[in-house]
Amino acid sequence: MVRTERSFARRIDLTSLQLFVAVCEHGSIARAAQQEFIAASAVSKRLAELEAAAETPLLQRHSRGVLLTPAGESLLHHARTVLFGLERMQGELAEYAGGVRGHVRVHANISAIVQFLPEDLGAFARMHSQIKIDLQEHLSPAVLHAVQEGAADLGLCKLPATAMDKGLQSRPYRSDHLVLVVPQGHALSAREAIQFEEVLACDIVGLHAGSSISLAMRAAAAQAGRPLRQRIQVTSLDAMCRMIDNGLGVGLLPDRAFALMQGVGRLAAVPLAEPWAQRELSLVARDFAALPATARLLADHLTPAARAA
Fold it and tell me: The pTM is what?
């Protein structure tokens, strides 16, 4: 950190950031002061000190309140991030005081979360009740980015071919196979297997455009030189099944996820006869050997050899 950065950090205090956020949210110094039980003149002084530290105006003051300048918009974003991080830190420290002995931050894609993690994490939690697991669902690229940036200790996702170029390490986790989900009685429901090129004649209900399944479908359609008729995009597997059940298209799901979705609708599954339909999910870390002890315990628990034992 250069000298000017150290000077800026020393001139910024958390109370001023909290007051700045309050003023922005209320659009008025007077209303923010009333909410924070502090004199309006004291709030104004804090804001002036923030502007002096930033060396640029943060607010435009007028008779009816305040408006943010572009610099103020930027500071508001960063101030909320800082304050949210402090709240999380306070919460985690309180949990340590209450007996928690470690935290593991895990980011995973929806396939891993729906199909495998409930049982795997449940078994781990029963063996290590004093270790807290923070789990977040993200698309596979975002999972890799979080691990690379240190926002997650471990990631579980479908690895793209370029994953190792990011300097990450991986271990095998689980595998699944994609199936075509159709309404019962659909013309394709009696098939034992199907090529994806045949699916391209149907309207498709898909997940988020950045999901690994959507990316694989688009690549396969491009290779076949055919358009992908993806009319509907949803963010959850049960929403996809309900759309398909109501005749809005067909869709691709991992086989175990489809088995867990039974009861959502009157549906049938046909195995997809493509090499890319067999998928490997991986456990990812920046460096498994350098993980905190609690994260290493979970990583070992999630490897196939540990599960077999």
Answer: 0.66
